[in-house]
Amino acid sequence: MKIKNYIKITILMLFLSIFLGSCKDSFLDIVPKKRLVAETTEDYDLLINNSGFYYSSTGGLQVPRWMGDEIAVDAHDITDNHLQAQLLFRWEDVIYSNPNNIVWDLSRGLGSIYTYNKIINEVMDSKEGTEAEKKSILAEAKASRAFEHFMFINFYAKPYVASTASTDPGFPIITSTDVTANNFTRASVQEVYDFIIEELTTAIDDLPLERPYYTRMTKPAARGLLGKVYMFMGKFDEALPLLNAAFTDLATSTNPPHLYDYNVEFADGGSFLPIDYTYNTGPRGPGNERYDFTESILARIYYSGIYDGNSAGRNGLVLSPEAAALYDTADFRLNFYDDTYEGYTGYYNNGMNPNGLLRKFGIQYTRYGLELSELYLLRAECKARKDDLTGAVADVEALRAKRMSANVAVPVDIKSDKIKLIKFIFEERIREWATEGYRWFDMRRLSVDPNAELAATVGDIHKIYDYVDGSTVVTETFTLDMPDRLTLRIPQSYIDENPGMEQNP
Questions:
Q1: At a CB cut-off of 8 Å and minimum separation 6, what does 115 contact?
Q2: Residue 17 to residues 26, 167, 212, 355: CA-CA distances in angstroms?
Q3: Which of 173, 366, 377, 417 could lock 304 by a disulfide, CB 3.0 to 4.6 Å apart?
C-alpha cells in the first residue's frame, strides 16, 4: 500500500467533517457539489481546526504502549481477537502481516500531513485574511507538520546518534499534496531532524502566545516541542533555553494550563471523585474526560480503551511488578490502578491479582502532545544533564507535590548524584505515564545514551501472567531483540509499492 493510499483513506472523511460541519451556508451554496475547496483565510483556519488532528481512536501512542518495558500482560484478558497487541507485546519483526490491514498510526499521521501541506502551500494566497493571520496559520501548519514527522521518525527509524544519523534511513519528508505520487524515498535520520528543527524554528515567531483552544499550536507549545526534539538528539545546551522560554510564555498567558493537585482532587469533594467501580471506570480526571485539557500545552489525545479489529486497545495490559514497585504508597497516581477489579463481572471476580498486578482502569483517553507535567520533567532532565542538580530537583518536586500526599522530596542520596538523579527522573516519567506509551520513546533514547549506566536501564523482558492454583505465575517470557526491534519495520505492503525503499532490519 502506497503512502498516497493511506492519505486518500482520510482525505474524504477529513474534508467532509471540516466543511460540512464548520463552513457557512453561503460558502456551501456557491461551491459545486463534490468540489469543496478552501478559498478564504478563514477556510484554512477551519481546516486546521479539525478535531481529527488532535483526537484519534487508533493513532497516537496506541502502538508503542504495547512495547514499553514497564508493562506485562494478563493471559485471561487478551484474546486472539487482539492479534496486533500480541505481536507488539512479543516485539515481533512483522506486526502487519495482512497486506490489507490499515496501519492506523500511518493513516492518521499521513492524513494530517496532507492537510497541513495543503495549508502551507496555499494559505498565503488565500482571500480576505490579513498578512498576519495568514502567517499565523502557516506557522501553525508547519509546526504541526513537524510534530507528525517527529512521531514517525521515532516509530520507523533508529534513535538519533550523531555519528550515524546522516546515513541511517529515516522517514520520507512529505511536503507535497500530490496524491498521485508513488515514489517516496526515505530521507536520512539527520535530514528528518533538520527538517523538523527548521519547521519549528521558523514557525515560532509567527505563532500566537495562546489560542482559545489547547488543541491548536501556540508559541509555548512549539518552543517546548523543539526543546524536546533537541533532547532526543542529545543536544541539551540547545534544549534548555527553549524549555525555559516555554515556561516564560506560559507565565505571561492569560489562561495557561496548570497541574491538577491530586491532594485536592482526591479529597472529599474533589473533582476526581467519586471513583465509579460499577462500570470499572475508576476516578474522574483527564483519563476519563475527552475534553479535559487542564494540563495540556498542546492537546493530542487518543482513545486507549478496548479496540478490536486486530488492533490494540488496553486488553490484558498491566503494570509489571518492577514498575509497580516504583510507586510510593503516598502516591495518588496509584488511585488510577486496581488490583482487584471490583465491579468487573468477568474473570477477576475469582480473586485474580493477589500478588499485586495492577491495571490502569477507566483511563480511556491518553494525552501525547505536550503536557505541562512533561515540560517539568523534560526541563528537570535537561538541568540535571547540565549539572544544575538543584534546579532539576526543584522541577521534579514541583510535580511530585501535586501528585503525592507525602515523601515529595527527592531522596538525599539521589539529589546530589547526577546519574542517580537522571535515573530518578526517568522513573518519575514511568510513574506519571505508565502503560500510556511514553516509555517506548524513553527506551529508544536511553538505549543510545553515552552513559552506560543510563543505557542499561532499558528493560528487554516482557512477561505474561496467569492465575494458577491460587497463585499468579509467569507463563511466557519474551525478549526484546535490541537494537533492531527498538525500531518498527515499515509495513511490507508499503515497501512493495515503493521500489527501492529500504526496509528496517
A1: 14, 47, 48, 50, 53
A2: 17, 41, 21, 48
A3: 366
C-alpha cell at 471: 497463585
C-alpha cell at 427: 522513573
d(CA 396, CA 279): 34
Residue 471 β-bridge partners: 468
**DSSP-assigned beta bridge partners for residue 478:** 462
259/372 Cα distance (integer angstroms): 7
Tell the residue number behind the cell numbers 497541513, with chain if given.
116
pLDDT 10s per residue in the chain (505 long)?
Answer: 355 544 444 444 344 333 333 333 322 233 333 345 789 999 999 998 888 888 887 677 788 989 999 999 888 766 655 678 888 999 999 988 777 766 877 888 888 999 999 999 999 999 999 999 999 999 999 999 999 999 999 999 999 999 999 999 999 999 988 776 767 889 999 999 999 999 999 999 999 999 888 999 999 999 999 999 999 999 999 999 999 999 999 999 999 999 999 999 999 999 998 877 655 567 888 777 888 999 999 999 988 764 444 444 556 788 999 999 999 999 999 988 877 654 444 444 344 444 568 888 766 788 999 999 999 999 999 999 999 999 999 999 999 999 999 999 999 999 999 999 999 999 999 999 999 999 999 999 999 999 999 999 999 999 998 877 777 889 999 999 999 999 999 988 888 888 778 999 9
Strands annotated E in 304-454: 317-319, 337-338, 359-360, 365-367, 370-371
The DSSP-derived string for 127-178 is BS--HHHHHHHHHHHHHHHHHHHHHHHHHHSPPP-TTTTTTSB---------
Question: What is the rounded radius of gyration, in angstroms, for the C-alpha atoms of the chain?
Answer: 23
